[in-house]
Specification:
12 strands, elongated, 479 residues, 3 domains, Arc Repressor Mutant, subunit A, Rossmann fold, Trna Endonuclease, Chain: A, domain 1, 5-stranded mixed sheet
């Protein structure tokens, strides 16, 4: 990965502002595993960090404390405490003394506690010790920024942001780090010396999402097909085995999480909570907790259907890597080299790529609004489903943009390797869907059909009859 930070302009601006504040600060930074949280803090604040410790996955309390003490000795040059702390309270007392002895900086000293959820082992007393450390010491040090970082976003939200005990309302700042957009991904590739056309970047994004740790595996001089083969299917490929570690590294009991992920992978259009419960047989309490955790960690997304009841909310698997792994990698590990070129010619590829492209469009809703010229218009976006009744047949729209200025876009995403040609039967389907939507929703707004494509569609007779606006992948690559 390049040493310079790609993108993250708003985050860097916020960090700079925090450094200049006239009070002590407690920052929680969280986001999906491998999204670049540690890299951002280490690179942007490297001149300010005076202490850093990272939790160890499945490490016992004693091991975590030993790691803490090792870092403490390194920073104090062994001139202070000489006994390994036996508790987190003692460890934080050591740290408080160290901070008190440091000369006052021009901005702020940074204490960086990385992978904090892993430090909080069962019955370790970590959170109560952290609470005392902040309330008794750091909150009185206006020249200190305490950073709590973790990929288990649900832990961060529960124990810090939404804490009910002594850490209630103590978080002063928060940053949720999101995956790269397509624009940031293209810039990242340029920094690696990789020059690929947008279509091939989109192919790679459909497999890996905007996860920097995955994207750094891209090598110049290879096509997207070669790269996917190397990274996902070769025995040494990073993403061949990543899935097996991903969920277990975040959740102490990951069986329910994996069950839900694999259930949603079989229904890429999404499922209601009721359907997930019926398919997985997970009871109410654990189901609620697991869905919340998967949503917080950005593996699944909830889409509130427009014009439907809240109980009809749709859960979708939107982690692009997990979807690709379960669709292709899992069942093709022993298939030999250059398997992706063969798989990408099969019918399963067309179905998968369509759903992946649709998910990417939802992730880039701001770019789509900009391309439509409605960036300044208040909108809601989601999906819509009508089961049908005695009068009207059923219909479904996976992506709707509902505008406050009395217009609704029914979006149709089409991922193709060349210019899309709207066929007679597809045009008839879009026309019928629009009619059902208008009657079933009883909306008085104008309804437009918007086509989302890779390359510009061929403007044939059916295109002019049914398509009101079109957005190509180029718009998705805008900042």
């Amino acid at each position: 990965m390049p040493l310079s930070i790609i993108g993250r302009e708003k985050e860097k601006e916020k960090l700079d502002k925090i450094l200049q504040s006239n009070q002590s600060e407690f920052l929680a930074i969280y986001g999906r595993r491998r999204v670049g949280k540690t890299f951002l803090i280490r690179q942007h604040l490297k001149e300010n960090i005076v202490f850093e410790i990272s939790g160890t996955k499945d490490g016992a309390k004693e091991q975590q404390l030993l790691n803490f003490f090792g870092e403490y000795l390194r920073h104090t040059r062994r001139l202070s405490e000489t006994q390994t702390p036996v508790s987190w309270h003692q460890a934080f007392e050591y740290l408080a003394g160290y901070l008190a002895d440091l000369p006052r900086p021009a901005t702020k000293h940074v204490v960086f506690l990385d992978e904090m959820p892993w430090l909080d082992t069962p019955k370790s007393g970590f959170t109560s010790a952290l609470e005392f450390f902040w309330n008794q010491h750091v909150s009185k040090m206006d020249h200190v920024l305490l950073i709590a970082c973790g990929s288990a976003s649900s832990w961060i939200r529960k124990n810090l942001i939404n804490a009910r005990g002594g850490l209630y309302n103590r978080i002063t700042q928060r940053i949720k780090l999101m995956p790269f957009t397509l624009y940031e991904t293209a810039v990242f590739f340029q920094s690696l010396g990789v020059n690929l056309p947008h279509y091939q970047i989109l192919e790679l994004y459909m497999v890996m999402g905007g996860i920097p740790f995955y994207l750094k595996e891209i090598e110049k001089g290879k096509s997207a097909t070669q790269l996917i083969d190397d990274i996902c299917f070769s025995p040494q490929g990073l993403l061949r085995e990543e899935y097996n570690q991903l969920y277990h590294s975040l959740f102490r009991n990951a069986e329910h999480h994996i069950t839900i992920i694999e259930t949603l992978a079989t229904r890429p259009q999404g499922m209601t909570r009721t359907a997930i419960a019926a398919d997985t047989k997970i009871s109410e309490g654990p189901l609620t907790k697991t869905l919340e955790e998967l949503t917080e960690c950005d593996f699944i997304s909830i889409y509130q259907p427009l014009f439907n009841k809240k109980k009809d909310a749709i859960y979708k698997l939107t982690d692009l890597y997990s979807l690709f792994y379960l669709k292709f990698i899992q069942s093709n590990k022993g298939a030999g080299s250059r398997i992706w070129e063969q798989l990408s010619k099969q019918s399963a590829y067309a179905a998968w790529s369509g759903y992946a492209f649709e998910n990417i469009c939802m992730m880039h809703i701001n770019q789509i609004k900009s391309a439509l010229g409605i960036s300044g218009v208040y909108t809601k976006h989601g999906s819509w489903k009508f089961k049908g009744d005695d009068t009207l047949p059923g219909a479904q729209v996976d992506m709707i943009i509902d505008r406050a200025d009395q217009i609704i876009h029914l979006c149709e995403a089409k991922f193709t390797k060349e210019n899309y040609a709207l066929a007679k039967d597809t045009a008839a389907h879009l026309r019928l869907r629009k009619s059902i939507f208008k009657q079933a929703s009883q909306t008085k707004k104008a309804i437009f059909t918007t086509l989302l494509t890779t390359y510009p569609a061929l403007q044939n007779r059916y295109y002019f009859e049914e398509i009101d606006s079109e957005i190509t992948m180029e718009a998705l690559f805008e900042p």
